[in-house]
Design goal:
It is built from one helix and six strands; from the N terminus they run βαβββββ. With about 90 residues, the chain is of the alpha+beta class. The relative contact order is 0.27. The protein binds zinc ion.
Length: about 90
């Protein structure tokens, strides 16, 4: 599983398609890539709230302040790698 922050602007379907294409002829052929999108969350220094945004604007949705700290949304982690050995 790959965790991708929403700010990476990556299309999960496109990523799976590229993975399938690139894994052909390699031991990873036939593997399934699952992509988990991580929402963009901010901490607002002005109102003290932690908010999640669907879009990628650096504004507090509660008070509109720009005085925010990005908490998540830039991830690009391989979370789980499952490998099945072929039985000979
Ligand atoms: Zn705020």
């Amino acid at each position: 599983m790959v965790k991708v922050g929403a700010l990476r602007r990556i299309n999960p379907e496109l990523m799976s398609f590229i993975f399938t294409a690139m894994s052909k002829g390699t031991p990873a052929e036939g593997a399934v890539l699952s992509v988990l999108m991580i929402p963009v969350t901010f901490y607002c220094y002005d109102c003290g709230r932690t908010n999640t945004r669907e879009d990628t604007q650096f504004l507090c949705p509660s008070c509109g302040s720009r005085n925010v700290q990005l908490l998540s949304g830039l991830e690009f982690n391989i979370e789980v790698l499952e490998v099945e050995a072929n039985e000979q």
